[in-house]
């Protein structure tokens, strides 16, 4: 496979995952705004931080309002990290790697692009927002589903999956990091309304309210939430889960190519760290610095994969 | 009155269209209308689009597809394909000759200036024989029809003919939408083309090839107007689709950067023009090509399809000599006719053209895509005056032809069937193993009533083209 094609596949799935996570993030912001209007402005600020676009937003706006943030994150053409920019980029990468995709996957991403860009061509009214956010998530999930159901398990599949999980790991870590202070044991004003709202944001942001409840019942201790999202290997958006997948896909590539590359060692290191760590050891190290270090290593791994598989000359 | 391929105004239907006409009579127009919309949806979903340069709002457009097929009988096709094969053989012999001894010039059948002073003549190819002796691996011959037995070659596309993906997708779409039509009509299949293309390219592999020839398609990139076709063909042939920046010279070969390192390519089906192929040897500012590819090529390290320099055969001044060219190299009378052509570089012809401008079609010698041409009968006084000035300033840049009464085939409109002018581009593959022509080709149709311009860049559409089995 061409190095460029490997890169195109990885980025196509990264952008789709990013669009999907952004839709979740806007959904949590809107949820807080509707249920706890007193907190909405600071919540929208934290949404901007989680989407890593606070600085760019401020450069283009005078004030943080729900309407402006939603528009910027979903429709901002000047925002390279908006849903519409991500869907554009996903589809452009899809065109670039058209020959490596099955017809189903290509048509799914092309249709995702047609549907979502058309939905986002006009400002979204509040009453339409839930349906729009749903469609974004569904379209992304549909592409992932066609990948699952139709693609040969060869390197094209591995690079696609790497894109999904590198992005997902980053998104989960970022969501946790922006809220890390409410997860610290010292911040646990146990059961207070305010903290519950924050936890709700975190769990809803990874679509995990239900699965958390199934796992821990009515317990809502912050350490459990952190443990669930960082270390629980059954939780498909946890850091540990993402890294078991990343290490697995890199391992398949290693077997197919018969050559062990630095990216395999980096991912294996991280997967091992996550499987050995306990939530107590992470809190001892400091949650914030743990997450910062994780995001840094995750980005380095992305760059190493790019070099190992010759994405560019 | 022009010739309609389906039938006369008195309601008679020509034989090849008999089954189609019956089917159409029995169909509910409302169902056909909804089918026509469905076709548009299918094309958009599959991303079968082309890019329009300089039009950011409509950067990806669909080429309109008309659901009424254009039908040729087996007998008509046999005649056409013989003529096409003869012409393509002559074009290859001509290209070999003008880059070597130029016998045709020595014999006085073609003026020396036509070659030596031709912008499209690529002097670095002098003395080069491409692998297998093949210059034009893929050719599209544009044909028009004026009567039951009267076909003309309008132009030769020996450089990088496009449109074959539409030939294939149009058939797929018809099979999907109207399977019943293929029960009542036995249509010769076209879907072998991608495999035939790959086999044909592989048969032209250079001496340096070690194992099974590695073929790749070279595209200028996703912003090129024909990118869809490039990716379609690479996909259908199961070969890599590469851009210039994926390639470099490694150990005297052209190699592509794969996830496992650089792998040599044996045959490069390039959809990049000569000028952009090699920044070291040709256009230095080009980012689309591969520095040094031309040196590798001349040393036998890679096959470039079509060979550099083939564009001279598309030149419209050369076209006017095609009857002589065919006769010179095949020793036979041309089976396909040329449209009578006045070369404006010649004083007598220029005088005639200027006197009769409003009856003629005037074309740029190196033009393509329907740009830069004048259709006399449809032009305003001002357009005629402007073109007259251009002709007087640079006569050598133009040729002129009579306005032909092009045949029509019906298209499906909201008011039922309506005749529109068409042309036909059959696709030809050339290798040392022989010449292979896919039955049919791409029919382009002018969607505007009375219009003679069929180019997709100017509002033309396409049709599925059927060649019936012998019965």
Protein described:
With 313 residues, chain A is mainly α. Chain A has 2 domains: 1-151, no CATH class; 153-313, no CATH class. Helix content of chain A is 75%, strand content 0%. Chain A contains 16 helices and no strands. Mean pLDDT of chain A is 92; it is low at 190-194. With 471 residues, chain B is an alpha+beta fold. Among the domains of chain B are: 15-121 and 137-189 and 413-467, no CATH class; 342-402, Dna Ligase, domain 1 (2-Layer Sandwich), CATH 3.30.1490. Helices cover 31% and strands 24% of the residues of chain B. Chain B contains 15 helices and 23 strands. In chain B, the strands form 6 sheets. Chain B has a 5-stranded mixed beta sheet. Chain B has a 5-stranded mixed beta sheet with strand order 13-5-4-20-21. The interface between A and B is medium-sized, with 25 and 23 residues.
- The total count of helices of chain A amounts to 16
Terminus-to-terminus distance of chain B: 31 Å
Shape of chain A: globular
Low-confidence parts of chain B, pLDDT < 50 over ≥5 residues? 54-58
Structural class of chain B: alpha+beta
How much strand content do the residues of chain A show? under 5%
Q: How would you classify the quaternary structure? A: heterodimer
Strand content of chain B: 15-25%
Number of domains of chain A: 2
Strand order of the largest sheet of chain B: 3-23-22-19-18
How would you describe the shape of chain B? globular
What value does the Rg of chain B take, in angstroms? 23 Å
Through-space gap between termini of chain A: 14 Å
Q: Give a quick account of the main beta sheet of chain B: strands, pairing sense, barrel closure.
A: 5 strands, mixed
Parts with pLDDT < 50 across at least 5 consecutive residues of chain A: 190-194
What is the number of strand segments of chain B? 23
User: If interface size is counted as residues with C-beta under 8 Å from the partner's C-beta, which chains form the largest one?
Assistant: A-B, 25 and 23 residues
Can you write the helix and strand succession of chain A as a string? Answer: HHHHHHHHHHHHHHHH
């Amino acid at each position: 496979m061409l190095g460029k094609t490997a890169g195109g596949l990885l980025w196509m799935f990264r952008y789709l995952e990013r669009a999907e996570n952004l839709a979740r993030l806007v959904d949590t912001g809107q949820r807080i705004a509707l249920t706890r209007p007193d907190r909405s402005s600071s919540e929208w600020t934290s949404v901007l931080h989680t989407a890593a676009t606070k600085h760019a937003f401020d450069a283009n706006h005078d004030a943080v309002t729900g309407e402006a943030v939603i528009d910027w994150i979903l429709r901002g053409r000047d925002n390279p990290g908006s849903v519409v920019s991500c869907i554009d980029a996903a589809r452009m990468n899809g065109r670039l790697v058209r020959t490596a995709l099955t017809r189903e996957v290509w048509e799914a991403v092309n249709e995702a692009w047609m549907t979502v860009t058309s939905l986002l061509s006009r400002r979204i009214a509040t009453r339409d927002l839930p349906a729009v956010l749903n469609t974004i998530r569904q379209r992304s999930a549909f592409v992932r589903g066609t990948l699952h159901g139709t693609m040969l398990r060869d390197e094209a599949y591995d690079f696609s999956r790497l894109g999904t999980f590198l992005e997902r790991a980053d998104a989960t870590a970022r969501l946790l990091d922006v809220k890390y202070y409410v997860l610290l044991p010292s911040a646990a004003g146990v059961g207070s309304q305010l903290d519950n709202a924050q936890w709700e944001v975190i769990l809803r942001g990874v679509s995990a309210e239900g699965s958390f409840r199934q796992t821990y019942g009515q317990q809502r201790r912050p350490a459990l939430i952190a443990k669930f999202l960082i270390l629980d290997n059954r939780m498909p958006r946890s850091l540990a889960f993402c890294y078991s997948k990343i290490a697995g896909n890199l391992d398949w590539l290693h077997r197919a190519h018969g050559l062990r590359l630095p990216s395999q060692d980096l991912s294996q290191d991280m997967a091992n760290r996550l499987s050995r760590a306990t939530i107590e050891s992470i809190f001892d190290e400091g949650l914030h610095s743990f997450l910062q270090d994780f995001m840094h290593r995750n980005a380095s791994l992305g760059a190493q994969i790019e070099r190992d598989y010759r994405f560019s000359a | 009155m022009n010739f309609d391929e389906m039938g006369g105004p008195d309601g008679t239907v020509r034989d090849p269209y008999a089954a189609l006409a019956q089917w159409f009579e029995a169909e509910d127009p409302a169902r056909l209308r909804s089918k026509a919309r469905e076709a548009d949806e299918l094309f958009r979903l599959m991303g079968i689009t082309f890019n329009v340069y300089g039009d950011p709002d409509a950067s990806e457009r669909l080429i309109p597809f008309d659901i009424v097929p254009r039908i040729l009988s087996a007998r008509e096709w046999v005649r056409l394909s013989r003529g096409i094969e003869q012409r393509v053989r002559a074009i290859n012999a001509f290209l070999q000759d003008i880059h070597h001894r130029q016998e045709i010039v020595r014999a006085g059948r073609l003026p020396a200036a036509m070659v030596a002073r031709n912008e499209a003549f690529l002097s670095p190819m002098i003395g080069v024989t491409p692998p297998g002796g093949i210059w034009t691996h893929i050719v599209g011959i544009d044909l028009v029809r004026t009567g039951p037995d009267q076909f003309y070659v309008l132009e030769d596309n020996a450089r990088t003919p496009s449109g074959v993906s539409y030939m294939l997708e149009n058939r797929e779409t018809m099979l999907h939408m109207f399977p019943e039509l293929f029960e009542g009509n036995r249509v010769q299949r076209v879907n072998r083309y991608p495999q035939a293309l790959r086999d044909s390219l592989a048969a032209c592999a250079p001496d340096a090839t070690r194992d099974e020839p590695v073929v790749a398609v070279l595209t200028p990139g996703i912003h090129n107007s024909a990118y869809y076709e490039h990716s379609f063909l690479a996909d259908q042939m199961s070969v890599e689709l590469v851009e210039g920046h994926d390639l470099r010279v490694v150990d005297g070969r052209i190699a592509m950067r794969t996830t496992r390192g650089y792998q040599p390519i044996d045959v490069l089906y390039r959809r990049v023009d000569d000028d952009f192929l090699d920044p070291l040897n040709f256009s230095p500012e080009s980012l689309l090509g591969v520095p040094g590819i031309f040196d590798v090529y001349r040393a036998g390290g890679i096959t470039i399809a079509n060979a550099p320099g083939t564009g001279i055969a598309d030149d419209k001044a050369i076209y006017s000599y095609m009857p002589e060219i065919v006769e010179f190299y095949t020793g036979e009378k041309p089976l396909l006719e040329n449209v009578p052509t006045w070369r404006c570089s010649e004083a007598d012809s220029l005088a005639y053209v200027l006197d009769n401008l409003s009856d003629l079609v005037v074309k740029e010698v190196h033009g393509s895509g329907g740009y830069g041409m004048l259709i006399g009968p449809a032009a305003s006084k001002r357009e005629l005056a402007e073109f007259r000035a251009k002709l007087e300033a640079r006569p050598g840049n133009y040729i002129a032809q009579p306005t032909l009464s092009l045949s029509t085939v019906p298209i499906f409109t909201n008011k039922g069937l309506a005749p529109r002018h068409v042309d036909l581009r059959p696709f030809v593959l050339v290798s040392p193993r022989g010449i292979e022509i896919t039955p049919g080709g791409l029919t382009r149709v002018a969607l505007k009533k009375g219009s003679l311009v069929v180019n997709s860049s100017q509002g033309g559409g396409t049709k599925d083209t059927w060649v019936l089995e012998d019965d």
